[in-house]
Amino acid sequence: MSETASVPSKQSTAIDYTLIVSRLRAEILHGKDIERCKEILSQQNVWRKMPAEGLLQWASLCQMAGAIDTASAVYDHLHRHHPERVEAWKGHIELLNILGKRQELVQVLAAAKGSLPEAAYRSCAEQVQSENAASDDPDMDAASAPFTGLRQRQAFIERYMSLFSGREDCFARQWVNKEEQKAGYYPVRRPMEPTDVEDHLAGRMTYGIYLMRSDATVKTAVIDIDLAQAFRTTTLSAADVTRIKRERDWLLRRLQELSLEVGMKPIIEFSGSKGFHFWYCFETPVSPTFARGALESIRKAVAADVNAFKLEVFPKQDQLSGKGLGNLVKLPLGVHRSSGKRSVFIGCTDTSTEAQLRYLMGIQPIGPAHIALPKEADQAKAPVVLHPKLEQWAKEYPELYRLEQVCTPISMLIASCRNKAALSMREEQVLFQTVGFFRRKKTLLHVLLADQPEYNPHLVDFKLSRVRGTPLGCKRIHSLLGYTGDFCRFEHVQTEYAHPLLHFPEEAGLQEPKSEKIENAADAIDNLKQAIRIVERFLGLERPP
């Protein structure tokens, strides 16, 4: 995890806690250094000094990261020092119900009775009593905070069920044997009801859906991104950690861009500390062959360029055989029974269940007729119709947009910059020694580096003035970045020294950078735009990327 998310010093003020909570939430949502996040979250000398509001957020982060013991300790601290905070009691009760810790739940309820006003305590007690009456399952959980009005609640659940729709007459329930550390699913042979979704969202149960419908069609398909096995079982080197972060940032951005280019907007779910789900929810049922073909075209465009992650497309079948039910995927926003971790949609910064469900109300299902997949034989020459979100980027910075398409290692660095991830010295060196040879090098480098934690426009200009010679070669770039993918082929150029700028014949003759002197009106305009961006950034007026 970057230094910007490190523990605050003793001189830190209250705003520092807001900063570290914000940075930790971003790290956890993107699966960044989960173990390091847990280490920071567990430091009592940090969270014991926080105000009540900060402690509530800290406990939520602990649950997101799977630091359950720390979450319980934070709640205990809240009860002792801020017994009036009803949210803390309800949050603790919810956590204990998720974990099935009945004895501790009784103790917390007893403590709440002596600390809360009668009405507040009664609401907590009634929640637990109603859930015990409704189910004898040991994993029952108190109902989550109610939505504003029954109709709104019903609309949220209906939207959820409409988007994440699988087989109509069957779904799956997760089981776990904590003693043997085993987990799996078994079929529940009846239609899923809204009450089942409520149970799933509250953590009482954890359910999955069988993607293939009974008529051999699908309404939902998934690209599953998991950390490769080789990076789970060994102690990771610093280079491996950097590679994982770089590939993850690039995958999240590149998969979304490729999806938008062909008319499909995915719902991206952080499924835990090891992976992500890209959900593609169709407006009407489609054939599994069509859905898989669309997703495979996206997967194939990136799969060969990463080795830290494994990408799979579901469903894998064209039709069901025998009594099989096909592939299943765990429904989003649920709790994993063994780890206690809850998944979230990364497109919504508020991780509360209500906010996450509200986020789905703005999602439009994919219309199959709007999917523009070129035929395989025509893919090389088919024009790409850019999504409006990408069109502005491509229009303002065509060099960077094109570089993203043709050079995967550099594309990963650009993705890191656009995601505001801190670059290493090597990564920064690669950018200066490649982008630093474009005609608009100054503008492009400032755009890329403006969101770096230690961005200094004068230092960027100084480093750029020191760039000499020729662009960094492909072999050297691969070596510096630890990239193991294929090298580009430059069939139109006869040269023994391959470098990324050979993709840009219009930039030929710029091997030796020119001086920083403004030579024409275009240069003057670029410098003016850069000055405006710096002022906007300083005033907090900068437009989101």
UniProtKB/TrEMBL annotation:
Domain TOTE conflict system primase, chain residue ranges per copy: 157-371
One Pfam family recorded for the sequence: AEP-TOTE
Top-rank taxon: Bacteria
InterPro entries: TOTE_primase
The protein's name: DNA primase
